[in-house]
Write a structure and sequence with these properties.
By secondary structure, this protein is α/β, with parallel strands linked by helices. It has helices at 3-10, 14-20, 72-78, 84-90, 103-111, 127-135, 179-191, 210-213, and strands at residues 44-47, 56-70, 93-96, 120-124, 140-144, 155-156, 163-172. Strands 1, 2, 3, 4, 5, 6 and 7 form a 7-stranded mixed β-sheet that branches. Helix 5 links the parallel strand 3 and strand 4.
Length: 262
């Protein structure tokens, strides 16, 4: 599974799975290269590229939506870009390039005409390094929107520079009949349920809408300890264009649904 999903979304949710199945060992391998299930590199894979092997079963779990984010410290220094043209001429960006991220494709589409010196500040293949660089003010970078729900204080930038990647669960048909593997498959499907987690829906939903649409329990700050949840009083659901939203309980480090959701 990809590094970002494994580190920031699934690993913090593993304790609930372990409580349900305490005798199962979860071997969580994170990387940007797609594993070869036919060669038994894994029993189950979560990836951002659609499987093509005919012998594999696949489930589309949901969709990741990415948009520009920046740290408050960066915006205090450079300001908020009011347009794509201003972003290209006055700002610095951080970019992730890896096998499944699609970074090279998006960069060429949006910024292929911009000289890199003075514009491209950081390029990395690591999701964690990418997020940490943005959080510490290295530049504006593209992050999945669900980060705003998990406690990051980075600010979404409202520019027409968004991208999407589908999330695929794949496994060998024989493995799917093994009870321990079936438990993992069912748990993964639940972890990406768009009905529970609106940021995985097919349509783009602005992070400012998450508090209104998310009806589940509190989501802890999964970014804590990674240099990503930087100290600031900024509202994590406020976009840099000024459109703000607040979690229903007034909190700033996560979102909490109503005590008795409908």
């Amino acid at each position: 599974m990809t590094e970002g999903l494994g580190t920031f979304w699934l690993a913090p949710r593993l304790p609930e799975f372990q409580r349900a199945y305490p005798m199962l060992l979860v071997d969580l391998h994170c990387g940007m290269r797609s594993v070869d299930l036919l060669r038994l590199e894994a029993e189950v894979a979560v990836q951002l590229t659609k499987p093509t092997a005919a012998d594999l079963k696949m489930i589309r779990l949901g969709r990741l939506h990415s948009m520009p984010f920046a740290a408050p410290s960066y915006l205090q220094t450079y300001g908020v870009p009011a347009s794509v043209a201003e972003l290209k001429s006055r700002h610095r960006i951080v970019y992730q390039v890896s096998e499944q991220s699609g970074g090279s494709e998006f960069y060429q589409r949006w910024f292929g005409d911009v000289p890199r010196p003075g514009f491209l500040a950081v390029r990395t293949n690591s999701s964690t390094a990418h997020a940490a660089a943005i959080a510490n003010g290295a530049g504006i970078g593209w992050l999945v929107t669900y980060g705003a729900a998990l406690g990051t204080k980075m600010v979404p930038i409202d520019l027409d520079l968004r991208s999407t990647r589908d999330v695929w669960l794949t496994y060998h048909a024989d493995a799917g009949r093994i009870p321990r593997v079936r438990h993992v498959i069912d748990w993964l499907v639940d972890c990406f349920d768009p009905k529970k987690f609106p940021w995985f829906r097919d349509e783009f939903i602005h992070p400012g809408e998450f508090p209104r649409l998310y009806r589940g329990g509190a989501l802890p700050n999964h970014f804590e300890g990674f240099g990503v949840a930087i100290a600031t009083e900024a509202n994590p659901f406020a976009s840099a264009s000024g459109a703000a939203a607040r979690s229903p309980d007034g909190g700033r480090s996560g979102i909490r649904g109503p005590a008795n959701p409908d």
